[in-house]
Amino acid sequence: MRVIAGRYKGRRLQSPAWPGLRPTSDRLKETLFNILTPHLQGAQVLDGYAGTGAIGIEAMSRGAASVVFVERDPRAATLVEANLAHCGITNGCVMMRGDFEGALRRLPAHQRFDLVLLDPPYDEAALDGQLGIAVERLAPGGLLVVEHATRRRAPDRVGALCCVRRVKSGASTLSLYRLAAGVSDEETRLGATANQPDGLEES
C-alpha cells in the first residue's frame, strides 16, 4: 500500500496486521483521486472510517489543506497516526478516535467540509443513516463519496443529497453525492470518464 501521487508519492504505508480491516485497493483509490483532483487544492476533508488513513493521506499529498480522520478501532487509529508520522505530516490533520456519529458531535457546530469521504464496513447498517449524518457537515458545493459493497446499492437520494455518479470495480462501488441545490451542469462533468483503469464500470 502506497501513496500514489503528490507530495508524498511513493511512501509505503503500514497495513493492518489483523483481519477485518479492508483497505481500499490501489486501483479503486487511483480512480477515486482521478475524479477528486479538481476538488482537492485547499480542500477541507473529512475521512470517516479512516482505517489505515491511506485515503486522507492521499488527499493531503495531492493538495488538501486539512483532513479530519475518524476511526473507532483503537488499533486502526494508532495505525493512522503511525502512517501520518511516517509521511512526516504534522500540520493540517486531526485524529478523532470514536464512532463516526459521536466524532461529528464533538466537532465545532459550524465546521463544514468540501469533501466527505466514507468507507464504512460493508456489512454495517443501511447507508441511508450514515449519509444522513454526514450531510450535515457537507459545505455548499461540496462532494460526498461513499465506498460500499456493489451488492448493496447506495440510495439515489437521502434528504438533500443526490447521487450524481457511480463507479463500480468488482465487489466495490463508489457513489458520489452532492447537495441537490448544487446539482446542475456539474453532474455532466462528474459523469465524464476519468482515466479509469480497465475493469471499472460507470452507472
Describe the structure.
This protein is α/β, with parallel strands linked by helices and 203 residues long. The protein has one domain (27-193): Vaccinia Virus protein VP39 (Rossmann fold, 3-Layer(aba) Sandwich). Helix content is 28%, strand content 27%. Strands 1, 2, 3, 4, 5, 6, 7, 8 and 9 form a nine-stranded mixed beta sheet that branches. The longest helix has 15 residues, at 26-40. The radius of gyration is 16 Å and the shape is globular.
How is the CATH topology named?
Rossmann fold
Using only C-alpha atoms, the radius of gyration works out to 16 Å
Terminal Cα span: 28 Å
Report the β-strand fraction as a percent range: 25-35%
Per DSSP, the total helix count is 6
The CATH architecture is: 3-Layer(aba) Sandwich
Query: Describe the biggest sheet?
Result: 9 strands, mixed
Number of domains: 1
Overall average pLDDT: 85
Task: Say which CATH homologous superfamily is assigned.
Answer: Vaccinia Virus protein VP39
What is this entry, summarized?
By secondary structure, this protein is α/β, with parallel strands linked by helices. The protein has helices at residues 26-40, 54-61, 74-87, 100-106, 127-134, 186-190; strands at residues 44-48, 66-71, 93-97, 113-118, 138-149, 157-158, 161-169, 172-179, 201-202.
What is the strand and helix layout of this fold?
Elements: H1 26-40, E1 44-48, H2 54-61, E2 66-71, H3 74-87, E3 93-97, H4 100-106, E4 113-118, H5 127-134, E5 138-149, E6 157-158, E7 161-169, E8 172-179, H6 186-190, E9 201-202
